[in-house]
Amino acid sequence: MKTLGIAFVVNMGSVAAVVCATLLALHGIAGWGWFLFMALLLSKSWTSSGDKEYAGDA
Question: Is 12 domain-assigned?
Fold first, then answer.
């Protein structure tokens, strides 16, 4: 349960970036793609220690 809570908190930034990109796109404001790029970077910045497919462990 603790790991699930940590994963939720860590991914909140990525979710917020996707929400911002959606709002910008719906209102026709340019630059929403940068928020999607930021969400991608934020989502890749955290991996759990038990992840066996992490490239560094291969």
Answer: yes
User: What is the number of domains present in the chain?
Assistant: 1
In order of 17, 20, 44, 47, the CA distances from 38 in angstroms are: 7, 11, 10, 17
6 contacts 50 by C-beta, under 8 angstroms: no
Q: Supply the pTM of this predicted model.
A: 0.67
Q: What is the pLDDT of residues 4-36, one digit of tens each?
A: 888 788 888 899 999 999 999 999 999 999 999
> How is residue 43 written in tokens?
């989502």
Q: How far apart are CA 35 and CA 49, in angstroms?
A: 27
